[in-house]
Amino acid sequence: MTDHLSIGGSSFGPNAVGHGARAEQRDVAIHTTTAGDDRFAAALAELRRQFAQHRAEIPESDWVERDLKNLERSAQEPDPDPQNLRDTIKRIAGRVAMSAPVISAVNDVRQLIEAMAG
Description:
By secondary structure, this protein is an all-alpha fold. It has helices at residues 38-54, 61-75, 82-96, 100-117.
């Protein structure tokens, strides 16, 4: 048995590793959301805050900044293009992967985009 977990690509949901480890997911509910939804706006604001706090750790921070502006602008449209939102958050995720707090915020936004595109 190992106490090391290596995940390639994306991992959504609980993960556990090591002797006696348990991963549980509770209270799973399917929510629909829209770009104008308060949860989406709050998630974007948290992503922006985390990015600002950890910007120095991110080599491609200027490109992340452009993608964040694009994401925020797209989310304000009356009928945002879900594929554009997905592509943008995927680029951001690839560029901030070395910063755990920022990638956590990215994943929160990504989940809401997927719920929106649902």
